[in-house]
TrEMBL record:
This is Large ribosomal RNA subunit accumulation protein YceD. One of its GO terms (cellular component) is cytosol. Belongs to the DUF177 domain family. The lineage of its organism: Bacteria, Pseudomonadati, Pseudomonadota, Betaproteobacteria, Burkholderiales. Plays a role in synthesis, processing and/or stability of 23S rRNA. Keywords: Ribosome biogenesis. GO terms for biological process: ribosome biogenesis.
Amino acid sequence: MTTENQAPMLRDVFALANNAVTLTGDLPIADLTRMRPELTQTTGALHYTISGHLNEKKYPLLHLQITGELSMVCQRCLEEVTQSIDIDNTLHLVANEADLDSEEDEINAILAGDESPEKIVGSTSFDLLNLLEDEVILSLPQAVTHDVCEKTLPTAAGEKPSPFAVLAKLKS
Ligand SMILES: [Zn+2]
């Protein structure tokens, strides 16, 4: 087993698995280009570990861990919110699209209670940065918000009486 410390880049992911290579390093937040519109700060970095290995069936696997914090916009109050990232996921590398599970296979696996890792198509020049960014995006909640917002927007319910309440008053 070897450990390398460097920025994620194009790698032969099958070789990482076959040789049990672990890559660790910092993922600069400024490199998360697809996420940039959602971020309020692009300084700093997330920390990642990518470990390749073969399982008992000799399937090539990539184990990904990503930790850190992102500064984003709260979807409820529009103030800045710190979203912590703590990803721990294992992916099964397959050679081509035909080896990916069909939707039917996936449903059957879920029905059978089979928790086998998600499959992705690997390659000899696989974009690890793109994969890490995919994992970060997939890990985010549908709407990033504070647990409890400090301020409420003026559009929040309660200020304006509903037209039905006004009508009821007129009638009485
Ligand atoms: Zn908020």
